[in-house]
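call fold(seq) -> tokens
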Amino acid sequence: MTADADQFRQSMDDALNTLRELRANRPAASDVEASGEATAGDGLIAVVAAPGGRIQSITVAPQVLRQGSDYLAEQLTIAVNAALDDLQARTVADAPDPPGPAVLLDRLADVQQQSVHQMQSFLSALTSAQARTARPAG
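ret:
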């Protein structure tokens, strides 16, 4: 194998390994154990948000019911939105840092450049072989 082919294979291996690392380090939705929590209404309403934007639980102290349905709805909205915000912040904080786009673009550009060079070499060899076979024998 030529040095160019070895370089091309190495570049491809590097790019694929980077993508495999990204995929392997990405937590599956089932692996994320973070939950978002928030309270409202002076701590009388508590909400827990689970991964996927699902509400796991809502706890309402009986005292808050005396405030009326408008107050209850407003405070529930505040608590749910705050719990979802907390979940998002925790999920982002727990996620591994992927390689930057510049790193991936550089690696892919190298692969592209080497593949073009390899293709030119391959086509040149085919053209030479074709020219040799087209010559009359003799």
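Residues 8 and 113 are 9 Å apart (CA to CA).
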